[in-house]
Amino acid sequence: MSRLSAILLLATSAVYASVAPAHGSHIENTRLGSRWYHDDDHPVHALFKRGPVGDGIIYPAIGTLEWSAGFPPATADTTMLPQAWVDALNAAAKAGKIPDIPQSTSTNGLDPVYPPGYDPISATVCSSTAKCVTPGDVWDAPPGVIALSFDDGPLPASDQLYQFLASHSEHVTHFFIGTNILLYPEQFKTAFETNQDDIAVHTWTHPYMTTKSNLEVLAEIGWTMELIHNSTGGRIPKYWRPPYGDSDMRVRAIAKEVFGLTTVIWNQDTDDWTLSEPVPLTTPEKIQQQMTQWLTGPKTPGLVILEHELSDLSVKSFIDAYPMMVSNGWNRVSLAQLDAGSVYQNAWNSTSQVNLAKVGDLAAKPPARASTTAKPTATTAKKPASSSSSSGKPASPDKPLGNQKSGATHFSAASLALTGITAAIVAATVGTIMA
Ligand SMILES: *[C@@H]1O[C@H](CO)[C@@H](O)[C@H](O)[C@H]1NC(C)=O
Ligand SMILES: *[C@@H]1O[C@H](CO)[C@@H](O)[C@H](O)[C@H]1NC(C)=O
Ligand SMILES: [Zn+2]
Q: Where are the coiled-coil regions (predicted)?
C-alpha cells in the first residue's frame, strides 16, 4: 500500500467518525436468529464431486504441481469455469433467486457505491458494507461466546498463530484466500491436518465482491471452494466471509443459492490488519484497550472480532488478548462451530466422515440454549481501505478499514451521501497530490 492510500484511509476514516452517530432509521432487515446450521439439502453436492474411498482416483498431495495445476494461479479466471457452476448460476437466476441489482463500483479502494436509485440500506440492495443486516447472515455470537476466526491466511505469520493455538488446545475458523492456499500449502496443512481447525472461504483474490459480475463472484467463491474441497478429503465449506465485509443481496444469493454458503461478517473490529501498514490506523496498545473493553464488558451479544493471520503484529494482538478471554470466562468457540453445528456442508468437522451423497444433515440439531437474545444490538461499522489488488499479487492482504464501535446500527442515507461527497473531495485532493 502506498503512502497516498494511507492518507486516503485516514481521511475517510475521519469522515466516517464524523457521520457515524447519525443513526439510520432504515432497518429493513432484521437480525439473525440463534440457529444458523444448515437445515436444507442443498444441490451444491453436484458441483464438487469426489468418489468414495477406493474409487481408484489418485488425489494429488497438497503442495504438489498436480495439486495446483488445474487452478487459476493469480486471478479468479472466468473463462475456465466448470460448466456445472455456470449452469447452477443460470438455473438460480432463472428461478428468480439471484436479485438483479447492479454491481457497485469502488474508486481508490473506497467503500463501493451503487448507481443512483439503489439505496445500499434498502431491502433490495442490503449492503453489509453499509451495515444492512440480512437474516441468515452471521454478525454476532450467542451470549457468552467469543467466536474465534482469522482472515487472509494461510501466510508465513500463520506459523506463530498455529503454534500458540495448538499449545492452548484452541480451535479456530480460518477464512482462507484461495491463492494464498496455493502459495502456502505447508501452513494450510498445519491448520487443517495438524491443528484440525475449521476451514472456510475468503474468496480467491480478495476483492470487493459487490463490484464483481455474477460470473466473477462465481469464480471467486467457486475456485476457493474447489481448492478447499480437493485439499481436505472432499469437504465442502459451509461459511464464507466477504473481503472487507462487502456483500449485498445479489452476492450473498450467489453464495447461498449456488454454493450453499452462509455469509459471516463480524461485530467488532480492531483494525489489526493495519499494524503492518506504512501508516497503521491503530497501535498494539489501542487494540489491547479495545480488547479489554469488549472482553470485560457485557456478554450479550457474544463477540465476533475480526482478526487476521496477516502479520506477526496482528497475530500478537490476539495472543496478547487471549488471557483476558480466559480470565473473563468467555466460551471460546471456533466460529464455524457456533451453535454446535457442523463445520462443513457434508462433514461434521475436519476428522469426521465426509458424507458424499448429502449436503446438510437434517438430523443435526443444535443443543437447546437458554433463550438466546434476539435484541437488536450495535454492530461495528467497518471501512474498507485503499485497495492494492490491482497489482494482481495473489497474497493480497485484508483491507477492512474499521473504526467505529459507536451505537450506530446502520448508516442513514444522509450520512452515506455525505460520505460519498467527502470521498469525492478526498479523491480529488489525492488526485492533486499525485499530480
Ligand atoms: C479437484 O479434484 C477433482 C477430483 O475429485 C478433480 O477432478 C479436479 O480436476 C480437481 N480440480 C482441480 C482444479 O484440479
Ligand atoms: C469431530 O467430531 C467428532 C464427533 O463426530 C469428535 O469425536 C471429534 O473430536 C471432532 N474433532 C474435532 C477436531 O473437533
Ligand atoms: Zn480479508
A: none
| Nearest CA, atom 3, ligand 2 | 352
pLDDT the model gives residue 381: 33
Q: How far is the CA of 169 from the centre of ligand 3 (A)?
A: 25
Which residue CA neighbors atom 13 of ligand 2 most closely? Answer: 196
pLDDT tens by residue, 377-410: 333 333 333 333 333 333 333 433 333 222 222 2
The rounded Cα 140 to chain-centroid distance in angstroms is: 13
Q: 52-69: per-residue pLDDT in tens?
A: 666 667 779 999 999 999
**Which atom of ligand 1 lies closest to the CA of 50?**
5
Residue 127 Rama label (left phi>0; alpha psi -120 to 50; beta): beta
The span from the CA of 178 to the CA of 259, in Å, is 16
Q: Which fold has domain 3-434?
A: TIM Barrel (3.20.20)
**Cell numbers for 256:** 447461498
Sign of CA dihedral 187, 192, 197, 202: positive
Instruction: Return the axis-axis angle of helices 312-327 and 158-167, rounded to nearest 10°.
Output: 20
Radius of gyration of the chain (CA): 20
Nearest to 383 by CA among 405, 358, 414, 361: 405
At 82, the pLDDT band (50, 70, 90 cuts) reads very high
Cell of 317: 494482538
